[in-house]
Design brief:
Radius of gyration: 29 Å
Number of helices: 23
Strand content: under 5%
Number of strands: 0
Helix content: over 70%
């Protein structure tokens, strides 16, 4: 039985109320392409609310009774808030998916226009071009539209132009709708269809470049807001907490209790980062496909991260000190104590933060290395394809056939593309078809940009003969796209400096302020449990800095996977910062 069927059978009595609360749920599901009846979707939300309530009850019980945290009122709020959050997420999910689908469609439009333009220069009509996209996995949205277009023509008996006009009114992309309607009107009036498609494609690429600039400005605004919450808010509340506990003997009611700080440090701050990751994801342009190898590697390392956190951080919490005597956690805790006391010469209290740093570094290292390797490979192939396209046009003008041009150019150095060109050259010599050649390239390369450009090239040669004019049009689109990607990268990359600066300020300030508070209280004849404060304050700060690394990657590269290396760098930076702690203590003692 499917999950939706089970949920509808068990929680269907709640579906009607949730459906009325959500308003026009059927339209939202249709725009998001979620193939569920509104009542079934509402019952799934009801099941998620029930499950989250049970889970929150278990977590609350653990926090209150097992860890013996007082007061309990911050955790009691989890009961009404958790199902409410799930209910709101159920409302937002279809709209978010519909927005993501529209963005994905918009990402395909310039390349679909370029494809029809390249085909038109070879004498192929746009309708035939769309039919060739029916089985194209690189553009899934246009592939689905092409299948519907084929049904309208072959099954319903519409003429191709009328079918294109009908499809234009159902696509979620305004740009593609204007492209199709403009083509039909140009064709009906007897205008130059090829010239129209060429100019329209140039406009689409320029519009996409303008949108990239708008997205960059929006990302800058998000970064400023995130810095306010993640850096200034954390900095202010950390200061209030330290002052509140250091002066608790003089205050009738503490401003900031330990339980409130744990809720703030381990739940609220990471949630702020997660919310901003989601907001940036729905506002940034996306390509129809992505490489998930880095995410698979990261999720495969999550059990290792949990094991290392249990062994390197939990033994230094009072409730879980028994883990120091249970292998292999005893080995992990011993390594952390040796590094903290013997290598860094830190006093007691820093073990938990050091253990948290080491756990994050070790568990994130494989996925960070894999992301760096994959990113360098993809960028190298994309750059090589652009240069290859331009060289191919110039060589083709000499009169050589496209196959001979490719075989001659395969001897040149195009960086990471060269090994793929050698395979293509051998396949051409062995008489392979262009479909087989592209299928091999598609399996060996993961970059969507590189694959879509090679797809355009292969179809241009296969259908239109690869005339110099056709290849010139394709090379111009390829260069325009590469220029757009470079400008986007140049505008987004400086924004990632803010999380790095913020992380450094948070860690250095917390250590300095804590050391300063102990020095001041020492002058006043009071004592401060430095080990207790360090153990309570620093570990959640390390986790927050790790989340800031994920945000930095999302800002700079529009991918969460790019944040793994930044999270690794920030964790290493946090680890190295603790080497300065003895110097900070000496400066306050003798300064």
């Amino acid at each position: 039985m499917a999950l939706s069927g089970f949920c509808y059978g068990s929680f269907g009595w709640l579906a009607g109320g949730i459906k009325k609360l959500y308003g026009n749920l059927e339209k939202d599901l249709q725009e998001a392409n979620i193939r569920l009846y509104p009542e079934a979707y509402a019952s799934v939300v009801a099941f998620a609310m029930f499950f989250s309530t049970i889970l929150s009850a278990a977590v609350t019980f653990l926090l209150i009774f097992l860890l013996q945290l007082v007061p309990i009122y911050p955790y009691v709020l989890i009961f009404p808030l958790t199902p409410l959050i799930v209910l709101l997420m159920g409302k937002a999910y279809p709209k978010s998916k519909a927005s993501s689908r529209a963005q994905s469609f918009d990402a395909e439009v310039p390349y679909a226009s370029a494809y029809t333009t390249v085909m038109a220069t070879g004498g192929v009509s746009p309708y035939v071009s769309f039919q060739r996209l029916k089985d194209a996995p690189l553009m899934p949205n246009l592939s689905a539209m092409s299948k519907i277009l084929d049904i309208d023509v072959r099954g319903l008996g519409l003429d191709p132009v009328s079918a294109i006009e009908k499809s234009a009114n159902s696509v979620p992309s305004k740009d593609f709708k204007e492209l199709l309607l403009g083509y039909s009107s140009t064709l009906r009036s007897g205008g130059d269809v090829t010239h129209y498609l060429l100019r329209r494609s140039e406009v689409l690429f320029k519009d996409r470049l303008t949108r990239v600039k708008v997205v960059s400005e929006r990302a800058a605004s998000f970064t400023e807001i995130y810095a306010t919450f993640a850096i200034l808010l954390a900095l202010g509340l950390y200061s209030i907490f330290i002052v509140s506990l250091t002066l608790q003997d003089y205050l009738s009611t503490p401003l900031f209790t330990e339980s409130v700080f744990i809720l703030f440090g381990y739940i609220i701050l990471p949630m702020i980062s997660i919310i901003f990751l989601w907001l940036m994801d729905i506002s940034q342009p996306k390509y129809p496909s992505s490489d998930n190898r880095v995410y698979k590697a990261y999720f495969a390392c999550l059990p290792l991260m949990f094991l290392l956190i249990v062994g390197m951080f939990f033994p230094f919490i009072a409730t879980f000190q028994f883990l120091k005597y249970i292998p292999p956690f005893s080995i992990f805790s011993a390594i952390v104590e040796f590094i903290s006391k013997s290598v860094m010469r830190l006093e007691q209290g820093f073990e938990g933060a050091i253990g948290m740093c080491l756990a994050m570094i070790i568990a994130t290292l494989p996925s960070a290395i894999l992301d760096i390797k994959i990113t360098n490979e993809e960028k190298g192939v994309e750059f090589g394809v652009t240069n290859f396209m331009r060289d191919l046009v110039e060589v083709r003008k000499s009169g050589l056939s496209p196959e001979k041009c490719i075989r001659n150019l395969s001897k040149r150095n195009y960086g990471r593309l060269s090994k793929h060109l050698e395979v293509i050259s051998k396949q051409l010599g062995w008489g392979f078809s262009f479909e087989s050649i592209f299928a091999t390239f598609d399996k060996r390369v993961r970059s969507w940009l590189a694959k879509i450009n090679m797809f355009l090239l292969v179809d241009a040669i296969h259908v239109g003969g690869g005339t110099p004019e056709t290849l010139e049009t394709l090379a111009e689109f390829c260069e325009m796209n590469m220029s757009m990607e470079k400008e986007k990268s140049m505008q987004l990359r400086p924004l990632m400096v803010i999380p790095y600066v913020g992380a450094g300020i948070l860690i250095v300030f917390s250590v300095i302020f804590l050391t300063y508070a102990r020095s001041v209280l020492g002058i006043a004849g009071k004592t401060l449990s430095f080990a207790y404060f360090a153990q309570l304050i620093l570990p959640p700060l390390i986790f927050h800095v790790y989340m800031m690394g994920l945000v930095a990657g999302k800002i700079s590269s529009e991918r969460v996977s790019a944040g793994f290396k930044h999270a690794l760098y920030l964790s290493i930076f946090s680890f190295l910062t603790f080497f300065m702690v003895p110097l900070i203590g000496v400066s306050f003692k003798f300064g």
